[in-house]
Amino acid sequence: MKIFFISVISCVFSSNVFPSVTASATAASDYVWRGQTQSSHGASNQVSMEYGHGNFKVGSWVATLGGSNGSEVDLYAGYSHAFQAEGYSLDFMVTNYTYTENSAGNAVEYSIGLNTPYLNLFIGQMPEYFGVESASNYISISKDFILGDSGIALGLGVGSTSFADEDKFSENEDGYQDYKVSLTKKKDDIEISIFYTENDLEEDE
User: Fold this and answer.
1) Which residues of 130-159 are buried (b: 16+ CB within 10 A; e: fewer)?
2) Which of these, 116, 74, 73, 64, lies nearest to 91 by C-alpha position?
3) How far from 1 is each of 32, 41, 62, 197, CA to CA, in Å?
4) Cβ–Cβ under 8 Å, residues 89 and 82
5) pTM of the entire structure?
6) Rama region for 149: left / alpha / beta (φ>0; ψ in -120 to 50; rest)
């Protein structure tokens, strides 16, 4: 069990005439993705840039993986649809995961997200799971709560990863659940977040 600290500094540029441009830089004590460290529990520097126009967006996200593991470079495209009912929307995304030092682990994910005032639902599907010839599905439910007048957001989330062909994975990784609790405070363009995350994978002896 470990607590991870993330500080985010973001700059947002927008225009009513031209497509919006959003950029961010992140310093993280660990890069955790769906309950598993991607940087061997080491620090990770992350940068992103996104272009949006109307309901469409395209962007890139880059993270260092620590040591000689190189970097992860994600490219994505998405479309968002807001319903007439306030607080309800759908997000459609395609994300390409690329690894500079391990191209065999490159992957593509197709996802859909449903956002509501009550819960947020995310469903993702990979035809191949990071170089393993097996499809993978991910489902998560999350919810943010604002704590009084503090401006601090409490985030709760749970996710489940499953594989179409479990025989191609080790016994301790034939599907798993992950859990996350976070506290986030944003002021102007600076966001600070502390979170705890865990999964139910069995540790290798």
Assistant:
1) eebeeebebebebeeeeeeeeeebebebeb
2) 116
3) 13, 11, 26, 8
4) yes
5) 0.88
6) alpha
pLDDT digits (tens, 9 = 90+) for 45-82: 999 999 998 899 999 999 999 888 899 999 999 999 99
Q: Which residue has the higher pLDDT, 127 or 42?
A: 127
- What single string gives the DSSP state of each residue in 89-125? EEEEEEEEEEETT-GGG-EEEEEEEEE-SS-EEEEEE
Spatial distance between the Cα atoms of 112 and 114, rounded to a whole number of angstroms: 7
- Give me 152's structure tokens: 């601090």
Report, in angstroms and rounded to the nearest whole number, the Rg of the chain calculated over CA atoms. Answer: 18
Task: Provide the token pair at 114.
Answer: 């449903």
Q: Where do we find the tokens 């391990």?
A: 102
Residue type, 102: N
Query: What is the C-alpha separation between 98 and 23, in angstroms, rounded?
Result: 20
Which two structure tokens, joined as six digits, stand for 117?
């005032």
Distance (Å, whole) CA 151 – CA 109: 33
Residue type, 137: N
Amino acid of residue 199: N
Beta bridge partners of 115: 89, 120
Give me the amino acid identity at 130.
F
